[in-house]
Protein backbone atom coordinates (compact mmCIF):
# COMPACT_ATOMS: atom_id res chain seq x y z
CA UNK A 1 0.00 0.00 0.00
CA UNK A 2 1.10 3.59 -0.57
CA UNK A 3 1.26 6.23 2.15
CA UNK A 4 -1.95 7.78 0.74
CA UNK A 5 -3.76 4.44 0.95
CA UNK A 6 -2.56 3.77 4.48
CA UNK A 7 -3.57 7.28 5.54
CA UNK A 8 -7.05 6.79 4.06
CA UNK A 9 -7.32 3.45 5.81
CA UNK A 10 -6.45 4.99 9.20
CA UNK A 11 -8.94 7.84 8.63
CA UNK A 12 -11.69 5.32 7.79
CA UNK A 13 -10.89 3.33 10.92
CA UNK A 14 -11.06 6.51 13.03
CA UNK A 15 -14.45 7.31 11.51
CA UNK A 16 -15.72 3.79 12.21
CA UNK A 17 -14.45 3.95 15.80
CA UNK A 18 -16.18 7.31 16.33
CA UNK A 19 -19.44 5.82 15.09
CA UNK A 20 -19.07 2.70 17.19
CA UNK A 21 -18.43 4.77 20.31
CA UNK A 22 -21.47 6.98 19.47
CA UNK A 23 -19.19 9.96 19.16
CA UNK A 24 -19.64 12.83 16.74
CA UNK A 25 -18.00 12.54 13.33
CA UNK A 26 -14.65 14.33 13.29
CA UNK A 27 -14.46 14.58 17.05
CA UNK A 28 -11.09 12.81 16.87
CA UNK A 29 -8.16 14.38 15.08
CA UNK A 30 -5.28 12.46 13.59
CA UNK A 31 -1.71 13.38 14.47
CA UNK A 32 0.44 11.64 11.83
CA UNK A 33 3.70 10.69 13.55
CA UNK A 34 6.51 11.20 11.05
CA UNK A 35 9.55 10.65 13.28
CA UNK A 36 12.49 9.01 11.45
CA UNK A 37 10.84 9.66 8.05
CA UNK A 38 12.34 12.26 5.74
CA UNK A 39 10.66 15.08 3.85
CA UNK A 40 10.10 13.00 0.74
CA UNK A 41 8.32 10.30 2.74
CA UNK A 42 6.15 12.89 4.51
CA UNK A 43 5.17 14.90 1.44
CA UNK A 44 2.64 12.35 0.04
CA UNK A 45 0.68 12.55 3.30
CA UNK A 46 0.56 16.35 3.08
CA UNK A 47 -0.49 16.20 -0.57
CA UNK A 48 -3.27 13.78 0.44
CA UNK A 49 -4.61 16.43 2.81
CA UNK A 50 -3.06 15.54 6.17
CA UNK A 51 -2.06 18.68 8.07
CA UNK A 52 -1.32 17.61 11.67
CA UNK A 53 2.02 15.91 12.28
CA UNK A 54 3.91 14.68 15.34
CA UNK A 55 7.64 14.41 15.93
CA UNK A 56 9.51 13.29 18.98
CA UNK A 57 12.85 15.06 18.63
CA UNK A 58 13.39 18.79 18.41
CA UNK A 59 16.63 18.58 16.47
CA UNK A 60 15.32 16.11 13.88
CA UNK A 61 12.27 18.32 13.38
CA UNK A 62 14.41 21.40 12.80
CA UNK A 63 16.01 19.57 9.87
CA UNK A 64 12.79 18.89 8.01
CA UNK A 65 9.83 20.99 9.14
CA UNK A 66 10.82 24.64 8.58
CA UNK A 67 10.90 24.07 4.80
CA UNK A 68 7.65 22.09 4.78
CA UNK A 69 5.95 24.69 6.98
CA UNK A 70 7.08 27.43 4.61
CA UNK A 71 5.61 25.51 1.69
CA UNK A 72 2.34 24.49 3.39
CA UNK A 73 1.29 27.30 5.68
CA UNK A 74 -1.43 25.40 7.55
CA UNK A 75 0.70 22.59 8.97
CA UNK A 76 0.20 21.98 12.70
CA UNK A 77 3.28 20.42 14.26
CA UNK A 78 3.13 18.55 17.59
CA UNK A 79 6.08 17.70 19.82
CA UNK A 80 5.32 14.29 21.34
CA UNK A 81 8.76 13.33 22.69
CA UNK A 82 10.59 14.29 25.88
CA UNK A 83 11.78 17.88 26.02
CA UNK A 84 15.01 19.10 27.65
CA UNK A 85 14.83 22.59 29.10
CA UNK A 86 17.81 23.75 27.01
CA UNK A 87 15.67 22.97 23.93
CA UNK A 88 12.60 24.85 25.18
CA UNK A 89 13.35 27.89 23.03
CA UNK A 90 13.75 25.82 19.87
CA UNK A 91 10.56 23.92 20.69
CA UNK A 92 8.52 27.09 21.23
CA UNK A 93 9.84 28.51 17.95
CA UNK A 94 8.95 25.47 15.82
CA UNK A 95 6.04 23.57 17.36
CA UNK A 96 2.37 24.53 17.41
CA UNK A 97 1.50 22.06 20.15
CA UNK A 98 3.82 20.67 22.85
CA UNK A 99 2.32 17.49 24.33
CA UNK A 100 5.08 16.56 26.77
CA UNK A 101 5.02 19.13 29.58
CA UNK A 102 5.74 16.96 32.60
CA UNK A 103 7.75 18.83 35.25
CA UNK A 104 8.17 22.22 36.85
CA UNK A 105 11.51 22.96 35.26
CA UNK A 106 10.25 22.44 31.72
CA UNK A 107 7.01 24.35 32.41
CA UNK A 108 9.03 27.31 33.69
CA UNK A 109 11.38 27.20 30.69
CA UNK A 110 8.42 27.12 28.29
CA UNK A 111 6.66 30.00 30.05
CA UNK A 112 9.82 32.09 29.86
CA UNK A 113 10.39 31.34 26.16
CA UNK A 114 6.75 31.98 25.29
CA UNK A 115 7.09 35.40 26.92
CA UNK A 116 10.33 36.14 25.11
CA UNK A 117 9.21 34.97 21.68
CA UNK A 118 5.59 36.08 21.82
CA UNK A 119 4.63 32.65 20.49
CA UNK A 120 2.17 30.49 22.36
CA UNK A 121 2.15 26.83 21.36
CA UNK A 122 -0.79 24.92 22.84
CA UNK A 123 0.28 22.67 25.71
CA UNK A 124 -0.58 19.20 27.00
CA UNK A 125 0.63 17.62 30.23
CA UNK A 126 2.08 14.14 29.81
CA UNK A 127 0.99 11.64 32.47
CA UNK A 128 2.95 8.47 33.25
CA UNK A 129 -0.16 6.36 33.81
CA UNK A 130 1.85 3.14 34.21
CA UNK A 131 4.35 4.71 36.67
CA UNK A 132 7.17 3.36 34.49
CA UNK A 133 10.53 4.59 35.79
CA UNK A 134 12.07 4.90 32.30
CA UNK A 135 9.13 6.85 30.92
CA UNK A 136 8.53 10.60 31.02
CA UNK A 137 5.35 12.05 32.48
CA UNK A 138 3.98 13.27 35.77
CA UNK A 139 2.48 10.65 38.10
CA UNK A 140 -1.32 10.39 38.13
CA UNK A 141 -1.55 11.52 41.78
CA UNK A 142 0.42 14.71 41.06
CA UNK A 143 -1.37 15.63 37.83
CA UNK A 144 -4.05 17.95 39.21
CA UNK A 145 -1.57 19.91 41.36
CA UNK A 146 0.84 20.20 38.42
CA UNK A 147 -1.87 21.44 36.03
CA UNK A 148 -2.94 23.98 38.66
CA UNK A 149 0.69 25.07 39.13
CA UNK A 150 1.09 25.62 35.36
CA UNK A 151 -2.12 27.61 35.21
CA UNK A 152 -1.89 29.65 38.40
CA UNK A 153 1.83 30.12 38.98
CA UNK A 154 2.97 30.34 35.37
CA UNK A 155 -0.16 31.52 33.59
CA UNK A 156 0.11 28.70 31.05
CA UNK A 157 -3.01 27.57 29.27
CA UNK A 158 -3.06 23.78 29.46
CA UNK A 159 -5.24 22.26 26.75
CA UNK A 160 -5.26 18.58 27.66
CA UNK A 161 -3.49 15.46 28.86
CA UNK A 162 -1.38 12.93 26.99
CA UNK A 163 -0.25 9.39 27.85
CA UNK A 164 1.69 6.44 26.45
CA UNK A 165 0.51 3.25 28.20
CA UNK A 166 3.06 0.52 29.01
CA UNK A 167 3.73 -1.51 25.86
CA UNK A 168 2.96 -4.84 27.53
CA UNK A 169 -0.33 -3.97 29.20
CA UNK A 170 -3.94 -3.71 28.14
CA UNK A 171 -4.16 0.02 27.31
CA UNK A 172 -7.87 0.45 28.18
CA UNK A 173 -7.43 1.09 31.94
CA UNK A 174 -4.67 3.63 31.18
CA UNK A 175 -6.91 5.51 28.76
CA UNK A 176 -9.76 5.43 31.29
CA UNK A 177 -7.43 6.82 33.97
CA UNK A 178 -6.28 9.65 31.70
CA UNK A 179 -9.90 10.56 30.94
CA UNK A 180 -10.72 10.60 34.65
CA UNK A 181 -7.73 12.82 35.46
CA UNK A 182 -8.65 15.22 32.66
CA UNK A 183 -12.18 15.52 34.03
CA UNK A 184 -10.76 16.29 37.49
CA UNK A 185 -8.64 19.05 35.94
CA UNK A 186 -11.51 20.43 33.85
CA UNK A 187 -9.68 19.53 30.62
CA UNK A 188 -11.45 18.28 27.50
CA UNK A 189 -8.58 17.19 25.28
CA UNK A 190 -7.05 13.74 25.47
CA UNK A 191 -4.09 12.73 23.31
CA UNK A 192 -3.97 8.94 23.50
CA UNK A 193 -3.79 5.95 21.17
CA UNK A 194 -1.15 4.88 18.64
CA UNK A 195 -1.10 2.50 15.65
CA UNK A 196 -1.88 -0.57 17.74
CA UNK A 197 -4.57 0.82 20.02
CA UNK A 198 -6.12 3.98 18.59
CA UNK A 199 -9.59 2.47 18.25
CA UNK A 200 -9.53 1.52 21.94
CA UNK A 201 -8.40 5.05 22.80
CA UNK A 202 -11.30 6.52 20.81
CA UNK A 203 -13.68 4.29 22.76
CA UNK A 204 -12.28 5.81 25.99
CA UNK A 205 -12.61 9.41 24.76
CA UNK A 206 -9.43 10.28 22.85
CA UNK A 207 -9.77 13.63 21.07
CA UNK A 208 -6.55 13.05 19.16
CA UNK A 209 -4.67 9.89 18.26
CA UNK A 210 -0.96 9.74 17.37
CA UNK A 211 -0.43 7.25 14.56
CA UNK A 212 2.95 6.61 12.95
CA UNK A 213 3.75 3.18 11.53
CA UNK A 214 0.20 2.47 10.31
CA UNK A 215 0.63 5.48 7.97
CA UNK A 216 4.31 5.68 7.11
CA UNK A 217 5.31 2.01 7.52
CA UNK A 218 7.68 0.38 9.96
CA UNK A 219 10.55 2.43 11.34
C1 LIG B 1 6.28 6.99 17.91
C2 LIG B 1 5.19 7.51 18.74
C3 LIG B 1 3.85 7.33 18.35
C4 LIG B 1 3.42 6.56 17.12
O1 LIG B 1 3.66 5.19 17.30
P1 LIG B 1 3.16 4.12 16.22
O2 LIG B 1 3.12 2.85 16.98
O3 LIG B 1 4.18 4.13 15.13
O4 LIG B 1 1.84 4.55 15.74
C5 LIG B 1 2.86 7.89 19.16
N1 LIG B 1 3.17 8.59 20.27
C6 LIG B 1 4.44 8.77 20.67
C7 LIG B 1 4.71 9.56 21.89
C8 LIG B 1 5.49 8.24 19.92
O5 LIG B 1 6.75 8.44 20.33
Automatic annotation (TrEMBL):
Modified residues annotated as N6-(pyridoxal phosphate)lysine in this record: 35
Transmembrane segments annotated in the record for this chain: none
Xref: Pfam families: Ala_racemase_N
Record carries keyword 4Fe-4S: no
Keyword Transcription regulation (UniProt): no
Function: Pyridoxal 5'-phosphate (PLP)-binding protein, which is involved in PLP homeostasis.
Protein name: Pyridoxal phosphate homeostasis protein
Source species of the chain: Pseudorhizobium endolithicum
Amino acid sequence: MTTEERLQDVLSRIEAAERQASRAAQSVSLVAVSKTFDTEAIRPAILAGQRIFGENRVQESQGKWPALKAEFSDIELHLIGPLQSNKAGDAVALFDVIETVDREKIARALAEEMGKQGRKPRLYVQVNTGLEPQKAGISPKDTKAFVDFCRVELGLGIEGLMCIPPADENPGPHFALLAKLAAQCGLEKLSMGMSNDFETAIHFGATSVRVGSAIFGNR
